[in-house]
Amino acid sequence: MAIRELNQEEIGAVSGGLDLGGLLTGILTPVLNLLSPVLNLVSGLLSTVVGLVSGLLGGLLGSAE
């Protein structure tokens, strides 16, 4: 327990008393919450496009034989 307290004190001294982890978490959490629907939309569109392209390629290759 004493080692953990010492490490927290050292980290506080080095970082100038700023809670960098909390600050980063506070910034990243809303950004990730905003990005997740966008990423879901992009992945859905990509899977649709890949499905269409593979279907077209499969149709072209199948008709060429």
Supply the helix-strand structural class.
mainly alpha
Distance between the termini: 73 Å
Mean pLDDT: 79
Strand content: under 5%
Radius of gyration: 25 Å
Number of helices: 2
Poorly predicted parts? none
Major sheet characteristics: none
Report the count of strand segments. 0
Architecture overview:
By secondary structure, the protein is an all-alpha fold. It has two helices and no strands. The longest helix is centred in the middle third of the chain and has 45 residues. The radius of gyration is 25 Å and the shape is rod-shaped. The N and C termini lie far apart (73 Å).
Describe the secondary structure blueprint for this structure.
Blueprint: H1 2-14, H2 20-64
